[in-house]
Amino acid sequence: MTGENRRVDPSRTPPAARPAPGPPVPPAPARASRARSTAVPVLTLAGVVAAFAYVGAVDPNEPGHYPVCPLFRLTGILCPGCGGLRSAHAFAHGDLLTALGANAAAVVGYLLFAAFTAVWLVRAARGAPAPQIALKPAYWWVFGVLMLTFAIVRNLPVGSALAP
To answer: What pTM was computed for the model?
Structure first.
């Protein structure tokens, strides 16, 4: 029966296929206010500024204000952090050369932290996620070797300029 019109019984036609329901779509997160999104980096910065203000006010060069490095007290060996408070004191007073002389690695750390915090604050103000420190393990090993080399060299006569 080609070419003939056949009457189609609607009760006999299969229903149109509908797509299967997917997972529910979560509502879009409400955008945090600028003050709320910048609260953590601002509070972090405030804490660091307060710490530097304290170290700037209470001179670590005068004995009795801060504890002595346990490694230095027990062995006489300067650790990578020895001189960090004297460095922070000089840094807080704007004396970069004295800060570098007390602990050059600490000054590099201060500057890296300041740069990270600035990026964090700008990104938070723009509503972007916080920056991540995602280094490959090889970079962490290089950092560890650099700190170990710094600790060894500053304890040798040739590296006396790195000692506090």
So the answer is: 0.70
Q: Is the dihedral of CA 109, 115, 118, 119 positive or negative?
A: negative
CB atoms inside a 10 Å sphere around CB 151: 19
Q: Using CA of residue 68, residue 72, residue 76, residue 82, what is the dihedral sign?
A: negative
In whole angstroms, give the CA distance from residue 46 to residue 36.
Answer: 15
Per-residue pLDDT of the chain (164 residues; tens, 9 = 90+): 555 666 656 566 566 666 666 676 665 555 557 778 888 899 999 999 999 999 999 999 888 888 888 888 899 888 888 889 999 999 999 999 999 999 999 999 999 999 999 999 999 988 888 888 888 999 999 999 999 998 899 888 988 888 88
